[in-house]
Amino acid sequence: MWKPLIAWNLMLAAAMAALGQQTPATQERDLRVEADTTETRPLIPEPGKVVIPRSYALVIGISKYRNLPSEQQLRFAERDAEAMYSILISPEGGNFRAENVHRLIGADATLANLKRELEEWLPSVAKPEDRVLVYFAGHGFVVDGTPYLAPYDFDVKNVEGTAYPMEQLGKVFGSKIQAKWKVLITDACHSGAITPEATRTINRSLLDLSTSVFSLTASRDRERSFESEDWGGGHGIFTYYVVRGLEGAADENGDGIVTADELAEYVRRNVREATGGRQNPTSERGSFDPNMLLAYVPSRIRAPEPAAPKFGTLIFETNMDGVEIFVDGKSVGVVNRDKPLRLPGLKPGAHTIKGVKRGYEPDGPREEMVYPGQEKTVSIKILILRRRNRAAVEAFDKGLEFYQRGFANNYRKAVRHFLKALEIDPKYSQAALYLGRAYNALYEEAKAREYFEKAIEIDPDYMEARASFAGMLLDIGDVDEAIRQLNVVVRREPDNEMALYLQAQAYRMKGMYEESIRSARRSIQLAPNNPEAHFWLAESLRLSGRYAESIKEYQEYLRLSDFNSKLAGKLNYYVLGFLIGHGKKKRAAQQDIWRDLRSLAYFGICDAHRKLKNYDEAIRYCRRSLSYDPEDPYVHYALGLAYARQAQDAGSLELLAAACKHFRTMLDINPYMAEADYARKNIASIQGYLPCQ
């Protein structure tokens, strides 16, 4: 017998109680990797005792300003910011987790965004035992004795309304942000005005802080900061030396640690010498801990030795365009025939150098001496075209035929032929790449990693191999290393749409949704018919609460990946390497990957409609999801929630029974999910009113 709707809703209130406590279920799927939440992370075992605090950073770089004339635009500030980001997230550098470093580059660096990140995000996440770094590259200026930083939307006609006062930055950094170590690095004209020693207009609170603050700025308050192509192919001079210092060049005593004092001394000395004394970086010496750890570079640890004399410079020239230069095993830039690469700030002594270009035998490795206070030109000659043995090429082509057919048995046949090609020609980097891809498809990650790394070892500038390696790293959950590999690719090839959509996936897995959205949209701009870029865009839009937008992108993914439609012949979906990088379980068959992602896309639409309270649509799309993967516990959980809400609105026992059925199915599939307790509470509440089998 039916009860009045009001009474029914009261009766169901208890059953619905647990629903208001939902955890973000969709963020717990197998694509997600949980961030480490420990206070500190020991990087090496005893007796080293090197411990890096949990660290957060904000990196800001603006070259092109919306409201400034062309002659006042900068050239390299955004490149500086990207270089700073790379060294911060490097395990041979800052050791920051990628998801803990936010970037505001170019048009994203508005005054509103800058305020939000500085005054809301950093104070909300940083704890007293943490490390916080803020980096700014762009214009700085003084108006009526008041120093400012210029965001992207700065307007000279409205300085107070569009600029960010350095005094406010000092207040926020000094009192609102809680951290054990605070680092403030600014590369801007007049940025020296942010330090306490400058003039009476400067915020004195930096001197009075009880916690350690290190403020390193590009110049004194009345000086300009310079940028030039002569430093690393194009950088602000100050940032060039900051990055070099954090890479380990500033490590004076060879303990692998770059301290605040070491970085300040290294940068000040080199910038002053490079500019003939016209630019003098300043550092606040009143309160910061001189032993504050700014970077940890284990590869630089060496036995104690006498202090090195002054630094020297290598200038690289080459006979071909696009030659990548490595110094002591690290990529330092790309040199072209008409544009030498100048690398100042090198310690005196022998350095190992190598020039590489894919498809050619490298020049090096060989040693070049750096002499204190001197410049030395190094000629890199790329001469010998790497010729392929005909038998190796035939073996590779045969392996490629099997690889392109898909499925496990064909991948195993492909492996045999790729191995034969690499045995005949040990420098066949393409064979090594496809071995990595084939082993990855067979779920043999250790071998896949071996051959991806082999391909990169043979050709360090093989960006396709780096992107594919990153995709495999996403599969096995090593998201930080994937981000580092993709960062190398995107810096070298900003229009590499494969790297961009994988970057979108990596950022989504880290919960860095705005970064993911930005990378996905750039990938779509370059290749509108790449379905997976739309998928990762949809995922990050949904998980950042933009449900209506996400539905459109999921629908576009489904349209583009419909093998039964007229588009099927245009997709070439897996042959180009889209097989890797999905973080999914069933990768030894193309059809499995396709079904997995379609299931996730339908689930995404279901979940978005559920959040919009469109329960009929949510149920319809979750059912579509189950048609591809009937054992996805999250889909059953979402269906349980949607049916329960419908039951509450309609007063329907039938719908309530359906909700209970899906909660039970979810628990049968995976009783250990984070949402399992809520499902059990819902079942217990429902069973008070009807049998729930």
Describe the structure.
- By secondary structure, the protein is of the alpha/beta class.
- It folds into 4 domains: 5-30 and 594-687, Alpha Horseshoe (Serine Threonine Protein Phosphatase 5, Tetratricopeptide repeat), CATH 1.25.40.10; 53-300, Rossmann fold (3-Layer(aba) Sandwich); 312-380, Carboxypeptidase-like, regulatory domain (Immunoglobulin-like, Sandwich), CATH 2.60.40; 390-592, Tetratricopeptide repeat domain (Serine Threonine Protein Phosphatase 5, Tetratricopeptide repeat, Alpha Horseshoe), CATH 1.25.40.10.
- It is 45% helix and 15% strand.
- It has 23 helices and 22 strands.
- The strands form 7 sheets. A 6-stranded mixed β-sheet has the order 4-3-5-9-10-14, with helices on both faces. Strands 18-17-20-21 form a 4-stranded antiparallel β-sheet, with no helix packed on it.
- Strand 6 and strand 7 (146-149) form a beta hairpin.
- The longest helix has 22 residues, at 590-611.
- The two termini are 21 Å apart.
